[in-house]
């Protein structure tokens, strides 16, 4: 096994550390897995601190070990339970005792050392020992004892609760087998320390060995900490005790806890809505008090009288009888005609701040007392409010000071009047006026009124005249009058010549405006920025994606073609015709070929020529160098390198394989080196999953399954450097999950996958039927429908046996059984013409359940996530060469038989729902992105609606789907952080190449991903919403969280179509699940700190905004309606808010114009806008109230209804589940057949 040489002085080395794209990778080696065999069986490997590197001596033997300096462990620190020492590692004693019991020779068992493994009675060069693995994996070793190998089947390889749970959860092993109504606490299996003590006793020679070996696992109840959240929802719902909830149907503790969680979450939503509502509406009213009514200086009506810059409404007043005025006279009207006039000189403010500043002369006729208090300063005259009244010192005909209201009675009556409004001037009024107006402390002063002083009667400061004559019109005297004396003069002038106030705002109102405009700028910035980025994606990025770059015109033509194709779910896309040799063969043709001893396409003597004729021309400018083609690395390119190929060795290996098949196949003849890289050098014998043919190899073990089991009709692989789309192909698994779908839905999906223009040599259809379910309206069960679409079975369906595996469930349901059927896809000639039918390998996994549950309503059903985990767990165990269940071995074996490839050769998984149809070139475009950019961990295409016009329910969803892809996903894709890869049409990378040196980073097969995604402990409302409702979105979140530096993108060229809910009941159920899962997944994502960007300019911040926006959607509708009605009813329309609303609602229309190719989307947008109350109020409110509902509701129905829900009680019986490596399973099968 070659792991390469580590040089710590090279900054470009690839260190095997945490399974992370930045510092973790797995080396490609010759072990049948396509990666360096880590032997990381997780229930046994607690530590991998030792990493050994070997050096080949040219004969395949290791001549030395050395420990490279490495700081990190392959297992994340929080998952590492002990250090690599024999005293602390829980598996140490177990290994020692097992080897001792097998060999019966205590001198021959392996000693554990911190640094270097020691082999006993064995030549290290002949042992399969993974130098990246932990020494504790004894069942991966072929230990020679007394001339024969230890029989691995004699070891206890059945999975037990502890072992398997350590695989699922390394920190703690939780057992939920016993969940009574009254006891819902978590149980944790904990026996490592006790096992250590027990085996210490055994090794020390105690007589109680048998009793200790048979000792059962101990369990104890874990003490549950009372968290702050639990305290909060307990206090919040104190008014609803358990008996009361039980009366309303919430009888179990789990449901009651979920209900309390729901109430607490709803309260949080109310808090957020209250805070945002206060910021929008309450903040301005709180800090900016409502100002008094104000009149502009030139807009005062005749119903008012102006006094000292204030307007008084005297429309209903009457003046008492005095000289010259009859009793009951209204001064606003004739004969006085004071309406709209300035009566400040009739009610002069004297003897205040002007005391001792303005004094009477000795000969003054103005009444003055001994303290110098004067009766008036100015003539008691009415003036025009515009300052046009000329100075007039003529005295009244009645008496001096007439109309100055100097009597105490008159003054009291004046003081009792309340002003109606303030008179205000704008700065423009002050600057452009013909009057000499200035401002002092916000008050407007008319300096021309100083001319009304009668200099023959009184004396005033010289500064009065200076200010009047200095041409200060339009200035603010507040900065000029600074001394105490000058300030007193300013106050004096304010009392006697004030004509109004300057148009200004208080500090609170200014702060309120700042908040309003900053919010406006911030929201508009985000909205407009997303819009601009989405347009940039459409016009500059989308056309460069996929298999080939196109111009915008070609891109529009392709989009229109997809639009036309998406009008009907059953319409066929532009499927290409297939050459005769590549078509799906009937059984009779296959039998005839075998009978006549003719070669199938896979075994054709001149296969490379056939490939050229059917696929296209080779590219002579793209040689395979350093394990890559033009910098693009695949599993295939790393297996072969043109520069290192020895043509004679290739022919010898091919001839050797032909002899091993014991048939009449002739030896393969290669015309040149390019042809030597065809199927034979890739698939056959030891060259499969090995270094390039001709490269000397330091491991001689066989790392493939038995070649004699390969199906005769498998599809031949093209040469490695065959690139009709200018990128090397990678092998893809097309994964389809079924539940209760009918024949039309499944046929539509499988037809579309099988007829994609991606080579059938590089795609495998894998269908998982989630239980023996018969959908509503179906005549037969979904598994029977699926099996009817297969032919040329490896094993006849009636002979296929069910195999056990550990399901994602609780209690006894953790044990499930499934059957694996392998063959080729069987087309329906009515849906796909014969000339377009490809020969595509297909595997169907039917979860049939244990014998005990066959009488239940849904035997074998464990959910979609369990179906995905079957594949993901299988890929992980293949990638790391771990022990696997019987079901997983059957999957591996069947893949080998119908493809001739080990499963580890597959690099990506296309996940498609069973009611989705894929556009023919979509898979090619999606795979091309993965090949060209190894930093992409997953991507999705666009989902089109096929039943747009069926009902108004489908019509309102069209634009919602459009905007979610072309605005949201397009924006996120530019930054490589698409937060939701829809489960109906997405592709994930299984492992990613790390450079050109043979290192691979596990992605979908990463233990962190598989472990967290397979979590069966759903003891909180948050986890239930993540794992039970939004598993597809949760998988996307896990990928982003585990690999934040990798990309998840949207590929516009790839498209699929599906049928959306056409009734409101089904839509309500679907969106309830989607909204609730979105909230909880966004909460997970907002905690990821490593997403691109910083602070407000980061994806983390954008995700946080989306989370808050989702929670307060009902408030958005309420705010919109309030603004609209307020603008209609109020005299002062909220212009800023209306502009913001118009931009938010209008930009999607602009996006349609700029990105959509059909104007009909404008109509769909209008329909969507009319349905905004449904999207922003009805659906969110319903979803929030259903926070504690974890069912799928009306989305999927089965014949006979849902059936009774079975409790997850009972003991998990793992005795029938065997966990072995695939080599052990194969040896066991050979022994059963008598071949060993």
TrEMBL record:
Protein's GO biological process: ascospore wall assembly; chitin biosynthetic process; protein localization to bud neck
Lineage: Eukaryota, Fungi, Dikarya, Ascomycota, Saccharomycotina
Keywords, alphabetical: Cell membrane, Glycoprotein, Glycosyltransferase, Membrane, Transferase, Transmembrane, Transmembrane helix
CDD domains tied to this protein: Chitin_synth_C
Main location: membrane
Name of the protein in question: chitin synthase
Primary gene name: TPHA0A04200
Annotated stretches, region: Disordered: 21-93
Any one GO cellular component localisation term in the record: cell septum
């Amino acid at each position: 096994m070659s792991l390469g040489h580590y040089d710590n002085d090279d900054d470009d080395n690839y260190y095997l550390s945490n399974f992370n794209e930045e510092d973790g990778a797995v080396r490609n080696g010759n072990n049948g897995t396509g990666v360096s065999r880590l032997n990381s069986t997780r229930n046994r490997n607690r530590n991998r601190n030792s990493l050994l590197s070997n050096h080949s001596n040219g004969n395949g033997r290791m001549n030395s070990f050395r420990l490279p300096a490495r700081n990190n462990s392959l297992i994340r620190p929080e998952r590492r339970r002990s250090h690599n020492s024999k005293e602390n590692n829980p598996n140490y004693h177990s290994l020692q005792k097992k080897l001792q019991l097998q060999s019966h020779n205590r001198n021959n068992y392996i000693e554990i050392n911190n640094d270097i493994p020691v082999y006993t009675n064995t030549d290290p060069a002949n042992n399969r020992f993974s130098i990246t693995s932990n020494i504790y994996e004894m069942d991966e070793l072929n230990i020679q004892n007394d001339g024969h190998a230890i029989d691995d089947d004699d070891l206890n390889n059945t999975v037990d609760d502890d072992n398997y749970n350590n695989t699922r959860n390394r920190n703690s092993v939780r057992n939920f087998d016993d969940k009574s109504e009254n006891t819902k606490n978590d149980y944790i299996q904990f026996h490592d320390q006790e096992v250590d003590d027990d085996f210490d006793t055994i090794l020390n020679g105690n007589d109680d060995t048998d009793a200790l070996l048979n000792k059962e696992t101990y369990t104890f109840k874990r003490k549950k900490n009372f968290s702050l959240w639990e305290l909060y929802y307990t206090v919040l719902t104190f008014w609803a005790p358990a008996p009361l909830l039980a009366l309303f149907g919430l009888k179990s503790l789990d449901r009651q806890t979920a209900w309390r969680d729901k109430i607490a979450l709803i309260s949080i939503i109310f808090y957020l809505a209250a805070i945002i509502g206060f910021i929008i509406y309450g903040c301005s009213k709180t800090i900016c008090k409502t100002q008094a009514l104000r009149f502009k200086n030139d807009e005062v009506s005749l119903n008012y009288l102006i006094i000292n810059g204030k307007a008084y409404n005297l429309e209903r007043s009457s003046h008492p009888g005095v000289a010259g005025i009859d009793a009951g006279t209204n001064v606003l009207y004739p004969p006085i005609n004071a309406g709209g006039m300035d009566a400040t000189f009739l009610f002069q403010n004297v003897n205040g701040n002007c005391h001792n500043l303005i004094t009477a002369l000795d000969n003054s006729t103005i009444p003055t007392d001994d303290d110098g208090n004067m009766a008036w300063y100015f003539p008691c005259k009415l003036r025009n409010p515009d300052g046009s009244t000329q100075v007039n010192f003529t005295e009244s005909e009645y008496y001096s000071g007439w109309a100055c209201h100097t009597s105490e009675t008159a003054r009291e009556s004046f003081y009792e009047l309340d002003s109606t409004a303030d008179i205000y001037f704008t700065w423009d009024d002050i600057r452009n006026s013909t009057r000499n107006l200035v401002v002092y402390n916000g008050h407007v002063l008319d300096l021309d009124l100083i001319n009304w002083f009668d200099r023959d009667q009184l004396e005033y400061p010289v500064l009065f005249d200076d200010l009047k004559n200095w041409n200060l019109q339009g200035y603010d005297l507040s900065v000029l009058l600074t001394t105490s004396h000058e300030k007193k003069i300013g106050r004096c002038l304010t009392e006697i010549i004030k004509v109004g106030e300057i148009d200004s705002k208080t500090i609170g109102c200014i702060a309120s405006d700042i908040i309003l405009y900053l919010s406006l700028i911030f929201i508009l910035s985000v909205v407009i920025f997303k819009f601009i980025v989405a347009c940039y994606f459409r016009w500059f990025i989308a056309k460069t994606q996929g298999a080939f770059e196109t111009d915008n015109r070609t891109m529009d033509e392709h989009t229109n073609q997809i639009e036309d194709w998406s009008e009907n779910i059953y319409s066929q896309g532009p499927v290409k015709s297939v050459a005769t040799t590549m078509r799906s063969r009937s059984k009779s043709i296959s039998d005839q070929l075998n009978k006549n001893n003719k070669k199938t396409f896979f075994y054709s003597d001149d296969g490379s020529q056939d490939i050229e004729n059917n696929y296209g021309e080779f590219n002579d400018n793209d040689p395979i160098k350093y394990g890559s083609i033009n910098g693009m690395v695949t599993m295939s390119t790393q297996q072969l390198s043109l520069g290192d190929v020895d043509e004679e060795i290739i022919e010898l290996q091919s001839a050797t394989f032909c002899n091993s098949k014991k048939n009449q196949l002739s030896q393969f003849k290669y015309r040149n080196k390019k042809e030597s890289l065809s199927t034979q050098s890739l698939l056959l014998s030891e060259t499969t999953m090995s270094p390039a043919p001709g490269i000397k190899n330091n491991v001689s073990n066989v790392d493939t399954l038995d070649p004699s089991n390969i199906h005769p009709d498998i599809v031949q692989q093209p040469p490695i450097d065959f690139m009709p789309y200018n990128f090397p192909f990678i092998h893809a698994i097309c994964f389809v999950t079924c539940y209760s779908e009918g024949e039309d839905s499944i046929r539509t999906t499988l037809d579309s996958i099988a007829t994609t223009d991606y080579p059938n040599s590089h795609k495998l259809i894998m269908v998982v039927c989630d239980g023996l379910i018969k959908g509503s309206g179906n005549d037969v069960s979904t598994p029977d429908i699926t099996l009817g679409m297969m032919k040329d079975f490896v094993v006849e369906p009636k002979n296929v046996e069910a195999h056990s595996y550990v399901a994602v469930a609780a209690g006894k349901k953790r044990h499930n059984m499934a059957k694996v059927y392998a063959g080729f896809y069987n087309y329906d000639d009515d849906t796909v013409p014969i000339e377009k039918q490809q020969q595509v390998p297909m595997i169907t996994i039917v979860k049939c359940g244990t014998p005990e549950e066959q009488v239940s309503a849904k035997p074998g059903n464990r959910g979609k996530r369990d179906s995905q985990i079957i594949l993901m767990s299988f890929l992980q165990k293949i990638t790391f060469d771990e022990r696997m269940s019987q079901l997983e071995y059957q999957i591996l074996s069947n893949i080998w038989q119908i493809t001739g490839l080990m499963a580890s050769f597959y690099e990506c998984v296309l996940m498609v729902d069973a009611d989705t149809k894929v556009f023919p070139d979509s898979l090619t475009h999606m795979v091309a992105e993965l090949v060209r950019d190894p930093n992409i961990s997953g991507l999705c295409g666009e989902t089109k609606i096929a039943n747009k016009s069926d009902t108004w329910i489908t019509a309102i969803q069209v634009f919602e789907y459009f905007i979610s892809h072309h605005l949201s996903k397009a924006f996120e894709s530019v930054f490589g952080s698409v937060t939701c890869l829809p489960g109906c049409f997405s592709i994930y990378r299984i492992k990613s190449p790390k450079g050109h040196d043979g290192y691979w980073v596990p992605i979908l097969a990463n233990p962190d991903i598989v472990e967290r995604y397979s979590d069966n402990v759903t003891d909180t409302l948050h986890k239930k919403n993540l794992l039970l409702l939004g598993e597809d979105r949760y998988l996307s979140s896990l990928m982003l969280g585990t690999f934040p530096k990798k990309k998840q993108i949207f590929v516009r060229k790839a498209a699929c179509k599906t049928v959306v809910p056409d009734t409101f009941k089904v839509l309500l159920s679907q969106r309830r699940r989607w909204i609730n899962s979105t909230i909880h997944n966004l909460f997970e994502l907002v905690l990821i700190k490593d997403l691109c960007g910083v602070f407000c300019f980061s994806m983390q911040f954008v995700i946080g905004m989306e989370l808050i926006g989702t929670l307060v959607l009902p408030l958005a509708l309420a705010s919109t309606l309030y603004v609209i009605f307020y603008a209609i009813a109020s005299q002062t329309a909220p212009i800023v808010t209306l502009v913001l609303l118009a931009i938010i609602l209008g930009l999607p229309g602009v996006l349609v114009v700029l990105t959509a190719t059909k104007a009909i989307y404008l109509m769909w947008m209008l329909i969507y806008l009319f349905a905004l109350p449904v999207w922003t109020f009805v659906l969110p409110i319903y979803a929030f109230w259903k926070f504690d509902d974890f069912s799928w509701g009306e989305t999927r129905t089965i014949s006979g209804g849902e059936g009774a829900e079975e409790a997850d009680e009972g003991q998990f019986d793992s005795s029938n589940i065997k966990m072995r490596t695939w080599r052990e399973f194969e040896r066991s099968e050979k022994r059963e057949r008598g071949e060993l």
